[in-house]
């Protein structure tokens, strides 16, 4: 049984590989190399199947915030949005063809994060509690000691973009972004 501290201090290599893709796509490879140096990250590459300290993500994104003047929340959100096509590709076998944004969100915990945990017991995706509020609204409660609500909001927006539903899905944070437990309201406009 892994202990809780390890579980949230380490994160699956895929998240780091996707962060590198995000930085190289939004900026360039030189920026990525400078961020690693500035953040004091010693290794020069991340492997998909390894685990790395979560604080390296904050250190890298923190440096990017300093050099671009953007908030950490905003950068984390952009990163979350960017990673959705990769996530969908990596875990496509758990996605049913008829699903759209609403169904995808309803099933993230029981199908997607559950598959992540099952495929690699070292991972600890955040706990999501998803509540239907009437026919057109979901409230997603995100709970994680890693406090990455920006990424959560970005993934939700990225999922709506993936299904070409950005214009009818509204995402609103109901709690302070840096809390351990955060509520996110998602409205589906008809
Ligand atoms: C397409 C469906 C999804 C897949 C395949 C997926 C997969 C993953 C994976 C592989 C990780 C790394 C876990 C680890 O290393 O312990 C992760 C973390 C994370 N996921 Fe998901 N996820 C999905 C949907 C979502 C949604 C809808 C949200 C938003 C509420 C979300 C929020 C997060 C956050 C914020 C993290 C960072 C770690 C943390 O906060 O503790 N994910 N996810």
From TrEMBL:
Q: Spell out the protein name for this chain.
A: Heme-NO-binding protein
**Gene Ontology MF annotations:** heme binding
Task: Give the source's domain of life in one word.
Answer: Bacteria
InterPro entries in the cross-refs = H-NOX_domain_sf, Heme_NO-bd, NO_sig/Golgi_transp_ligand-bd
Checking SUPFAM superfamilies in the record gives: Ligand-binding domain in the NO signalling and Golgi transport
Check the record and name the PANTHER family matching this protein.
Answer: GUANYLATE CYCLASE SOLUBLE SUBUNIT BETA-2, SOLUBLE GUANYLATE CYCLASE GCY-32-RELATED
The record's annotation in Pfam families points to: HNOB
Residues in Heme NO-binding domain copies = 13-170
